[in-house]
Design goal:
Layout: H1 3-11, E1 17-27, E2 30-39, E3 43-48, E4 57-62, E5 72-84, E6 87-97
Antiparallel strand pairs: 1-2, 1-4, 2-3, 3-6, 4-5, 5-6
């Protein structure tokens, strides 16, 4: 199996949940509003209104709409980018959950 085939197969080993929810991206002390498109146990796909680079480290926060449920906070790393004008879709790998 080639590296490309293995990478694709490994991506499919994680269940993805479509969430389409607002989120905060924190990079270099700056907070940017984005949208989490989907989420898995190892990463997420987000849409951001500004440019990031592969390798950037981002803190992410998704607040819960329910008082009884804690939101999600994680340290992530940008692993891929799909640019569309001013917007970017980012693939983030979760490095640490807090």
């Amino acid at each position: 199996m080639s590296d490309r085939e293995r990478d694709y197969a490994e991506k499919r080993d994680f269940i993805r949940m479509r969430v389409d929810t607002n989120m905060s991206l924190i990079h270099a002390g700056q907070e940017i509003e984005g949208v989490c498109l989907d989420l898995s146990s190892s990463g997420m796909q987000v849409q951001a209104p500004r440019q990031f680079s592969v390798g950037d480290l981002l803190s992410v926060r998704i607040d819960s709409e329910h008082a009884a449920l804690k939101g999600l906070e994680a340290e992530t790393k940008v692993v891929w980018i799909n640019a569309d004008g001013e917007q970017q879709k980012l693939g983030l790998i979760i490095l640490k959950m807090s």
